[in-house]
Amino acid sequence: MRTPRESERDSAFLDYYRCPSDVGAIGTLPGVSAEDGYFRFGGSIGFGRFAGGLPAAYATDNLTDVSAAATIIDGRAWLPFDLSQVATNLRRERYRRNGNDLLQKTTSGGIAQRLYYLLRPLMGVGVRKHLQKIRLRNWEKIPFPQWPVDRTVDSLMEGAMGIALAAQGGPIPFIWFWPDGAPACAMMTHDVEGQAGIDFCEALMDIDDSFAIKSAFQLIPEGHEETWQATAARLRRRGFEVNLHDLNHDGLLFADKNEFLVRARRINRYAREFGCDGFRSGVMYREQDWFSAFEFSYDMSVPNAAHLEPQRGGCCTVMPYFVGDILELPLTTVQDYTLFHILNDYSTALWERQIDLISRHHGLISIISHPDYLVGERERAVYLDLLRHLNERRARGLWIALPGEVNRWWRNRRQMTLVADGDTWRIEGPDADRARVAYASLTGERVTYSLSPPARTAASA
Ligand SMILES: [Zn+2]
What we know:
The chain is of the alpha/beta class. The chain has 13 helices and 19 strands. Among the domains are: 101-137, no CATH class; 179-410, Alpha-Beta Barrel (TIM Barrel). Helices cover 34% and strands 17% of the residues. Helix 2 runs antiparallel to helix 6.
């Protein structure tokens, strides 16, 4: 049963920080435009309706900077745009995609896509790679979202926190993003594509276990009913997680709304029958506005910046977020197949760069590698380097978790509240013993976070 939930429209900031609602109330100034468009808010880009300028059609246009219009009235922060609306536009990819828009349209959901998937079994990897390279041409020229990691939503939240801090005149407590004060979170996932992948699962579990990393395997249900349970049991017995990977992986899940609804019912049935809480679509195809048809708990099908995916766009955040009742755990790093076969890169340099950018901003490092593509020795060596790198970061506090654990934490965090306790704050709610009170404060113009109360100044003592 679905339970009614509070409106998403006015809660994005509070959901993000879980700060006390009175200090975190952000108002929207009157006079916002009738049309959505790009604008600038200091160092970040927004997309939606805003006051004080003309909405731009493209992220590369000369954008109106509305940051000077942000103001404080009666001790409360007001923005010249609706932060929740803008955050939803970005996360749900409702902004106008520009750069290779025509290519994007002709290769996803259309006749070309159907043809490609019909012919795919007949093509060798060489032909597929060649076609993919043509399709992805000029990807590095796409101006928005930002490559290799986009934090637009997160930096808008920080900008809003800056105004709230100025309004408050002191630090604002909030519930830290990850349990036990971990600086960031990482999850390893493996999409199993074909028989070669299924055959390699055992060896891949050995590799992951040798680094004490448990991962999640996504298995295609339809057409594999006979063997699905046995494969899943082998994985689960060793403490690995199993989720659904698409329905039948024909690349057409979101091609037609009516057909999608029929397929979603079948996916929901498999999720119940196989006991799966999580899902990832084939080829990262997605239509977030249709997710309400799904009954599983979390999805992992939305890239952060999808320049190198067949369906372009991206959710512009490194944090989990809710799409109705579904928690989205976005893909925030490049896929192994893309790295090896499109970029022809057999190093961890790009992965490490992305991991560093996400870690510095306390986000979710989410990784896909395919057992099917790790069979080769050269690819496997790169994967081992990646695990080594993650373990080095774990020694410095990184929380490496299963998607199911991240889902549980993020859902519990949403139910936690900060309660004033004399001079200090405590957290109440499920899993509260693992939660930490954090403090946002202004260091010059910059918003900074800390896990201990900032030193009191003489004025506030
Ligand atoms: Zn797949």
